[in-house]
C-alpha cells in the first residue's frame, strides 16, 4: 500500500494531479481508518496506463469515459475497445505528421550544412 506522497514520487506526478484524477473519477483510492488516500499495485498499474494515454494526447474526458466504462463491467468491453481503437488512429495520425515534420527538418538541416560548408552566411531560415 502506498500513500499519495509515495505514489506522487513513484510516478513523478503531483499530489494535486492525483487528487484531480480522483475528483474526475479516473482513480478511486482506498481510504484508511484516518480517511487518508491509500493506493495499491492495481492503482499504480492503472495510473501508469492513464499517464501513457495522457502522453499520447488523449483528452481527460476520454480517459474518464474509459474509466467509467471499465467500472461498469465486462459488458462495456466493446465500447472500451472502440475508444482505444479510435485513440490508436489518432496516435497514428500524430506519428504520420511527426514523420513528415522530421523529414522537413532533416532536409532543412542538410541544406544548412551544405550552405555553411561552402562558407555562406546568408540566413536560410525562411527558405523551403
Give an overview of the whole structure:
The chain is built from 5 helices and 3 strands. The protein has helices at residues 4-11, 15-23, 41-55, 60-72, 77-117, and strands at 2-3, 30-31, 37-39. The chain has a 3-stranded antiparallel beta sheet with strand order 1-3-2. It is elongated.
How does the SSE layout of this entry go?
Blueprint (H helix, E strand, L loop, with lengths): L1 E2 H8 L3 H9 L6 E2 L5 E3 L1 H15 L4 H13 L4 H41 L11
Antiparallel strand pairs: 1-3, 2-3
Indicate the percent of residues in helices: 55-70%
List the domain count as a whole number. Answer: 1
Structural class comes to mainly alpha
**Major β-sheet annotation:** 3 strands, antiparallel
Helix count equals: 5
Secondary-structure arrangement, i.e. CATH architecture: Orthogonal Bundle
Q: Can you write the helix and strand succession as a string?
A: EHHEEHHH
Computed over alpha carbons, the radius of gyration is 22 Å
What is the strand arrangement across the widest sheet? 1-3-2
Range of strand content: 5-15%
User: What would the average pLDDT be, to the nearest integer?
Assistant: 91
Spans of 5+ residues with little confidence (pLDDT < 50)? none
Any idea of the CATH topology? Multidrug-efflux Transporter Regulator, Chain: A, Domain 2
Q: What is the CATH C level class, in words?
A: Mainly Alpha
Count of DSSP strands: 3
Shape: elongated
Distance between the termini: 56 Å
Amino acid at each position: 500500500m502506498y500513500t499519495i506522497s509515495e505514489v506522487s514520487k513513484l510516478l513523478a506526478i503531483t499530489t494535486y494531479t492525483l487528487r484531480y484524477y480522483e475528483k474526475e473519477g479516473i482513480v478511486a483510492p482506498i481510504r484508511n481508518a484516518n480517511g487518508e488516500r491509500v493506493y495499491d499495485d492495481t492503482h499504480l498499474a492503472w495510473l501508469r496506463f492513464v499517464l501513457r494515454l495522457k502522453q499520447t494526447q488523449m483528452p481527460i474526458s476520454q480517459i474518464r469515459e474509459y474509466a467509467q466504462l471499465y467500472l461498469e463491467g465486462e459488458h462495456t468491453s466493446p465500447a472500451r475497445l472502440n475508444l482505444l481503437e479510435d485513440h490508436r488512429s489518432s496516435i497514428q495520425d500524430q506519428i504520420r505528421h511527426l514523420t513528415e515534420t522530421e523529414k522537413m527538418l532533416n532536409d532543412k538541416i542538410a541544406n544548412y550544412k551544405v550552405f555553411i560548408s561552402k562558407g555562406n552566411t546568408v540566413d536560410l531560415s525562411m527558405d523551403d
